[in-house]
Request: fold
Amino acid sequence: MAIKTRKLSGTPQQENRSYETEHAQLARRAASEGIVLLKNENGLLPLAKGSKLALFGAGAGRTVKGGTGSGDVNERASVSVFQGLTDAGFEITTKEWIEDYDRRYRQARQDWKEAILTCQKELEQKGGLNAFFEAYSTHQFAMPAGAPVYKTEADVAVYCVARVAGENADRFAAAGDYALSDTEREQLKTLGNLYEHVVVLINAGGVVDLAFLEELPHMQAALVISQPGMEGGHAVADVLSGAVNPSGKLTDTWADHYEDYPNAATFSHNNGNVEKELYEEGIYVGYRYFDSFRVPVRYGFGFGLSYTTFRVETTDICTAADGGVTVQAAVTNTGAAAGREVVQVYVGLPDGRLEKEARRLVAFGKTALLQPGEMQTLALTFGPEQLESYDEDSSAWILEQGLYGIYVGTSLQESTLRAGLQLTQDKVLTRTQAICPLKQELKVLSLPAEKRAARYAAMQAEAAKITVLPYDLSAVETRTVDYQLREPQDEAAKLVDTLTREQLIRLATGEPSKGQSDSNGSDKVSALGSAGAAVPGSAAETSSAALAQGIANMVLADGPAGLRLTQTYYVKNGRAQPVPMEMSLEHGLFYDGPLPEGKPYYQYCTAIPVGTMLAQTWNLPLLREVGTAVGKEMKIFGVQLWLAPGMNIHRNPLCGRNFEYYAEDPLLSGRCAAAITNGVQSHPGIGTTIKHYACNNQEDNRMASDSILTERTLREIYLKGFEIAIREAKPRSIMTSYNLINGVHAANCYDICTKAARCEFGFDGVIMTDWTTTNVDDTCTASGCMRAGNDVVMPGMDMDHENLRKELADGTLTLDELKRCVTRLVRVILHSDCYEQ
Reply:
């Protein structure tokens, strides 16, 4: 196969291209479906078209479309709530306030820029690595306070609370972040006195304290608009006007108080220790904790209101010989407006030798748009793998005998027991080997045995009134994992055998410092990942060391809210000029130098809603559409691997990167990642990179933090979503995380890279490191990555090559180990679209 000759990406024309219009419409639809209606007293919403609205709040005119850092997207333009409401025909009576806020915002951005550049200089003087990124990411931009609110002729006030978060820094359980600032509280209190009706919009990528909804008068309606991407303002207007009936559901538990989360006191910086993170809540993450321990919540997992009402009836349940279960749910629109509803199936688990959560999500589905009186039947399926628990004593996935109660509803709280499955004897589904052993004692949260027994007895008593089916798993064969890797002797393996040792070493990393310069013109590698040359602003490229042998170099681009590329670059004498890294960030805010010489080329990418908001749609076909659109843009710009989707668990609401991830539940996370991946990979020759594998639930000290947890917790909560995505979608790549797992860096961890991902989950793609993982200390090395089965070190540095040479020479890394990793990379490259067809 001949390697394609790469053309310049983007276009010298500034006109809007057809894909931009098409994908903007999709982003708007996804955002509108992901908006969650929390409160709507007296049917205040939807608002009459043409209504006068007093619009206030930080997110009104400067709506936060997404998070900062590598998850940012340099889109052509972003629609604010103000613009969206204006375009929809609402009369905004507070334009002066919004204009004043815009001036305050621009000044705050300049002040923020100066603070970061000052910090950068200080870090550089101390010899800090990636000084700019450290300064940028540890100085999160805070939305400034606006002017005092005031009375206008409008009857309805809309107030938009906005929050910014991003990688490398966690949030704080403090005023102005998790809680309202004093100014926001005062403004909302004043609005309650000035206006008869107040609507609150939560423009944040994660959970915030909503106690004020009950504490302050006239807070009649509230919606989570999350971080809705470039078309967010139009989506908000669609929902407020009733053009779209809200159908989003929460993917997190919104507690009454931050202190109610089981790891609140010890998470990240809260206890002053960011070196070791003890996962002492065990399996009790999110709703599993609140439901099992019966802790009241403000808004529960799966919750979301509509402008209409629905009736959900369980019409049938059946089992199959392979253990599959199908629940038929008839959904009828009983209200006066067309709308969509999400049906969720949870299973209550038997009390046995293994302690289990009260209920877990096992299936879900969303209806089509139902007209008043219209009915649709959903077939919701799950298998025994959704009911299994991990037994550390026997190193096996098992189902314990007893009653499995099937709960059906429109949220966890609203679900009711509709049927049951009776398993008469324990069933072992999969026999494994132990992984990631604990190296210190961990005091794991446990619900007292008498409370678990009482809960189970109550479910059994209730089940006496419903249908309980025998659950026969005798025909299901027990699988014993084969941990002996057998790499095929295919074209990739044969090709790798022809390479020199030096070529192998170079292929085991990305292309060091390719195509990027700093503001002074010197080459450097950025932790933000803008080291690509073929596609300016891309994260990196794989090595070109074996082009002569027909091994192409792939282009990798950041995500997961769309492709992160440089919006404008310059071409001179037919070649793209190196782009200063600062030009690729925040629409060039930090770059004050001269523009590169040459003709400008434009790369406008679509900023889709953040991961959490996509998951709030609970609409897998829609997510597949979004993935397909991203894949189309990858094809347009010449990108082979998208560094997305992000799918870490929302362990605590203060994780600074929760916006990139889907949910607190592994099934929902895995299914969302699979849907996105199937969409992207519907285009031949390109793929996704599911990340960050694994236990990347803290951003403070993310490169050295040790996630300490039991094997059962690791498997059931933090690896399960990755397994689901791998089995259902076969992503081309996995990205390991920066953190350690029980004392071993994830990138150097044989147990998760090889034993779990490859042998247990059946992953057959390439595993790569996160950027500069091996640059921190001697405990995580390029050779360690190869031994673990982490195939490629990104973005690649000379020190990685030196380490590989040294360990090959002293025998601590074998040539066969290196070849296995390079072969897996080459296999993915050969199936990429880098070749002429």
The CA atoms of residues 673 and 725 lie 6 Å apart. The first helix runs from residue 18 to 34. Residues 515-527 have pLDDT under 50 and may be disordered.
